């Protein structure tokens, strides 16, 4: 039976969100309700992901998204699910999605709320057809533009250090919803028999050091000499350091979920093809960095803190080195 943060059986995600310490005395409960809507969206997407093969949702739509990537049917379904659930709630003034080139407005007659949501609806979608883990990533900021009006691009272009809440859903051997609203990182496992996420990992802390590194070694020939120096170092045993093992699923959410629970480091550096890195800042790197930092880990671009990058474009990319504090520090030091 799932336990609760107070040891009582069965804290649901819904209950946990409502029990959160209000972010401020004047808290309106809007963030709580926005998180509850993400809970609903996660259940809907999870249900379809688990039946993708049966529900005719595998394969491609033939379309290409703003990233120039072929769009998988489940990507589109996940994107539409989040947009439809959130826009009607009235807690957001604008949204940003990996699947949509421009900011997504909240249509009339829906009210324009005080928050901004950005998301990768289905990260790692290349894994869909082979039944490997995939995930959804979300990031919530407060709006900066005047209340009540339609949100604008500048509401989306905010640094990760100003994130109010962020998290991910990993669709794997079980589905988990992991989030932080600044008061620890908490994980919930979905019980399909009940139709709820139950608290299973209360106050997750990432180990200070791990024993795995997670990177696409197939890019070795495209990396800078500095990145190669670190990868060559991390896999060697010397100076009293153990040799690290390589673990790579090819979906950031899955690779970072393992890293969060077991420790280690995940990296997607810049290379000759992806000169600014492959992963997107606003709805992949920043929210995952927020979660990892709130669990006691670190997240670097290689030259600075991911959460301090000042965004200039909705789909901009960044190199990432994210994971256990000491492993990230080692990577930055060895790369020099
Ligand atoms: P590569 C998935 O397509 C993704 O955006 C991330 O989830 C993942 O970490 C990365 O790309 C994998 O990229 O080049 O190793 O296939």
CATH topology of the largest domain: Fructose-1,6-Bisphosphatase, Chain A, domain 1
Mean pLDDT: 92
Secondary-structure-based class equals alpha+beta
Topology as H/E string? HHEEHEEEEHEEEEEHEHEHEEH
CATH class of the largest domain: Alpha Beta
Q: Kindly report the name of the CATH homologous superfamily of the largest domain.
A: Fructose-1,6-Bisphosphatase, subunit A, domain 1
Quote the distance from N terminus to C terminus.
48 Å
Low-confidence stretches: 1-7
Query: What strand line-up does the widest sheet have?
Result: 4-3-5-6-7-8-9-10
Which small-molecule species are bound to the chains here? Answer: 6-O-phosphono-alpha-D-fructofuranose
Radius of gyration: 19 Å
Largest sheet: number of strands, sense, barrel closure: 8 strands, mixed
Q: What's the total number of strands?
A: 15
What is the second-level CATH architecture of the largest domain?
A: 2-Layer Sandwich
Q: Count the helices. How many?
A: 8
Fraction in helix: 25-40%
Count of the domains: 2
Residue fraction in strands: 15-25%
Question: Which outline best applies?
Answer: globular
What does this structure look like?
It is built from eight helices and 15 strands. It has 336 residues and is α+β, with helices and mostly antiparallel strands. It has two domains: 189 residues, Fructose-1,6-Bisphosphatase, subunit A, domain 1 (Fructose-1,6-Bisphosphatase, Chain A, domain 1), CATH 3.30.540.10; 124 residues, 3-Layer(aba) Sandwich (D-Maltodextrin-Binding Protein, domain 2). Strands 4-3-5-6-7-8-9-10 form an eight-stranded mixed sheet, sandwiched between helices. Strands 12-11-13-15-14 form a five-stranded mixed sheet, sandwiched between helices. A hairpin with a 6-residue loop joins β3 and β4. α1 packs antiparallel against α2, α2 runs antiparallel to α3 and α5 crosses α8. It is globular and about 60 Å long. It starts with 12 loop residues before the first helix and ends with a helix. The N terminus is likely disordered. Bound molecules: 6-O-phosphono-alpha-D-fructofuranose (P6P). The site of 6-O-phosphono-alpha-D-fructofuranose has 10 residues, from α6. 6-O-phosphono-alpha-D-fructofuranose (P6P) binds next to α6.
């Amino acid at each position: 039976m799932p336990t609760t943060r107070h040891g009582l059986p069965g804290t649901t995600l819904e209950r946990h969100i409502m029990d959160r310490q209000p972010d401020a005395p004047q808290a309106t409960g809007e963030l709580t309700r926005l998180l509850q809507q993400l809970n609903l969206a996660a259940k809907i997407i999870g249900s379809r992901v688990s039946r993708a093969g049966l529900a005719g949702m595998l394969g491609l739509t033939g379309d290409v998204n703003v990233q120039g990537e072929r769009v998988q049917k489940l990507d589109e379904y996940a994107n539409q699910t989040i947009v439809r659930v959130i826009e009607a709630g009235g807690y957001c003034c604008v949204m940003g999605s990996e699947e949509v080139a421009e900011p997504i407005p909240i249509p009339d007659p829906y009210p324009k709320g005080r928050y901004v949501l950005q998301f990768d609806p289905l990260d790692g979608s290349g894994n869909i057809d082979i039944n490997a883990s995939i995930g959804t990533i979300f990031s919530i900021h407060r709006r900066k533009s005047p209340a009540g009006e339609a949100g604008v691009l500048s509401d989306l272009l905010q640094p990760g250090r100003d994130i109010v809440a962020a998290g991910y859903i990993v669709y794997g051997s079980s589905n988990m919803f992991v989030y932080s609203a600044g008061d620890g990182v908490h994980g919930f496992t979905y019980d399909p028999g009940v139709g709820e996420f139950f608290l299973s990992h209360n106050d997750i802390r990432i180990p200070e050091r791990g024993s795995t590194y997670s990177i696409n070694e197939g890019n070795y020939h495209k990396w800078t000499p500095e990145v190669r120096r670190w990868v060559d170092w991390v896999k060697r045993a010397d100076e009293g350091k153990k040799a690290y093992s390589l673990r790579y699923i090819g979906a950031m959410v899955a690779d970072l979920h393992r890293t969060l629970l077991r420790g280690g480091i995940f990296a997607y550096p810049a290379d000759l093809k992806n000169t600014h890195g492959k992963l997107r800042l606003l709805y992949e790197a920043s929210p995952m960095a927020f979660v990892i930092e709130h669990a006691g880990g670190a997240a670097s671009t290689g030259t600075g803190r991911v959460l301090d990058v000042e965004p200039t474009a909705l789909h901009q990319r960044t190199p990432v080195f994210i994971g256990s504090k000491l492993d990230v520090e080692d990577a930055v030091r060895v790369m020099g």
